[in-house]
Specification:
9 helices; single chain; about 210 residues
């Protein structure tokens, strides 16, 4: 009887490990405001004053290094709101980055913004599935091709480069690469820190096998 019970427990433990994985715990959860250092208080106040909301999402782990957080915010402010690229393209690039890094928070935060900016739902759905969207406009194709190439191969072919420069100009190409790089940085920070989604929000992106 004892052997059978021990065997049953061992089987259950093995089953649980395979079928019911424990959710990863947030390594850098929000710091209560009354626990902030003086530098963090100052950074949080500046952040809220500029963005109109309190520290959240990727800035929760980043506030551990207040100066990094504020400099990241400044770069994000330019790339999101002052880029020479149309918001539809900027938001599409953010979704591509979120998909390439399987960054759930990034996707949730930007999906609806992308659709409101004019990105078609079927294009967003294809990106979520890891598929090349069909029927893209020329500027969407140029932004998609360069983003996918730099994300996946760490290089950009002459054909893709020339097409992007012809469509966006050299400043536009740098803005395009900047959006990829900036949102990759945020995705890296959140993936490493295991930053979670808000309570009750389901993960929108399928997790692909490694």
């Amino acid at each position: 009887m004892g052997h059978r019970l021990a065997g049953a427990i061992a089987s259950f433990v093995m089953f649980s490990a395979v079928v019911m994985p424990v959710l990863a715990q947030d390594r850098m959860p929000p710091i209560p405001a009354d626990k902030y250092t003086e530098a963090q208080k100052k950074a949080a106040k500046e952040f809220a004053g500029g963005r109109g909301y309190e520290v959240r999402g990727p800035f929760v782990p980043l506030i551990r290094s207040p100066e990094v957080m504020l400099r990241a915010k400044a770069m994000g402010d330019h790339l999101r709101f002052k880029s020479v690229l149309a918001p539809r393209l900027s938001e599409m690039i953010i979704l591509i980055t979120a998909r390439e890094w399987t960054q759930q928070y990034e996707w949730v935060a930007h999906h609806d913004i992308a659709i409101k900016a004019g990105l078609r739902n079927d294009i967003a759905d294809a990106i979520a599935d890891g598929r090349r969207p069909v029927g893209m406009a020329e500027d969407e194709e140029a932004a998609y091709d360069m983003s996918i190439e730099i994300q996946r191969t760490k290089r950009v072919s002459d054909a893709t480069w020339n097409k992007a420069v012809a469509k966006f100009g050299e400043q536009g190409v740098i803005d395009l690469l900047g959006i990829n790089g900036y949102y990759t940085f945020l995705a890296m920070a959140m993936n490493a820190a295991r930053t979670g989604l808000p309570a009750g929000v389901a993960e929108p992106l399928k997790r692909f096998p490694d």
